[in-house]
Amino acid sequence: MTDWYVEGTEFSNCNCDYSCPCQFEALPTNGNCRGFEVLHIDKGRFGDVILDGLNVAMLYAWPGPVFEGKGELQAIIDERADLSQREALVKILHGEETEEGATHWWVYHAMSDTVHESLFKPIEYEVDLESRTAHVKIPGVVESVGRPIKSPATGEEHRVRIDIPNGIEFKVAEIGSGTTQAKAAISLDLKETYGQFNILRHSGSGVVHS
Predict the structure, then answer these.
(1) Stated pTM of the model
(2) Model pLDDT for residues 42-95, shown as the tens digit of each residue
(3) Residues 134 and 126 sit within 8 Å (Cβ to Cβ)
């Protein structure tokens, strides 16, 4: 396999309640899974191809739990990427050059019957892990906002984390609230549902914990 590594800050938003039962090996809140993720690559390479500074996003949907399959996904690649970078990022997001089951991207692709044609678009993305805030705009495709969870009793910000030592996406994630609209091959209309903020470190053999 081609040796690759990607590290950056990820924000994602799906249609589950704030706890996201999938993180606990339980069934999704609404019986199905729809969502998106966006990543700014601080450090990245695919073989000799450098990926530093690029943004990528994914839209996905399954009619039931992810593990039952029959889903669909669509990758969105930073339009600033040159041809070799585009080819590398599509392979990574589609779970290629990756050990079986090693990353969530591999699983998402394996559980999708339909893989839509990748889009190459400008991706505006600002994220602050500590404050649990994010703003995403992919013109004509996605608009999303992430914010902290607020207590319905006091209106104060509530902070909670999920720690998965042997996970296939992250080790620790800050949990917040996300609102997303998407108008691509996969449409989304999410309002104040599960938002996830985390550092992502992936390689072809899985999450890198060092």
Answers:
(1) 0.95
(2) 999 999 999 999 999 999 999 999 999 999 999 999 999 999 999 999 999 999
(3) yes
Beta strands at 33-46 and 55-62: parallel, antiparallel or unpaired = antiparallel
Token duo for residue 24: 């606990």
Q: Which residues pair with 124 in a beta bridge?
A: 137
Q: Which residues of the chain have pLDDT under 50?
A: none
- Residue 48, Ramachandran bin (φ over 0: left; ψ between -120 and 50: alpha; else beta): alpha
Nearest Cα neighbor of 52 from 13, 22, 85 is 85
Assign residue 152 a region (left: φ > 0; alpha: ψ between -120 and 50; beta: otherwise): alpha
Closest CA to 24 of 117, 162, 191, 119: 162
Q: Does residue 139 contact residue 73 with C-beta atoms inside 8 Å?
A: no
Q: How far is CA 204 from the centre of its chain?
A: 17
Q: Which of 163, 134, 160 is nearest to 37 (CA)?
A: 134
Which DSSP helix (H) or strand (E) runs through 93?
helix 83-93
Q: Which domains are assigned to the chain? A: 4-207 (2.40.400)
Q: Is 169 in a helix, a strand, or coil?
A: coil
Residue 175 near residue 157 (C-beta atoms within 8 A):
no
- Please, are residues 146 and 178 in contact by the beta-carbon 8 Å criterion? yes
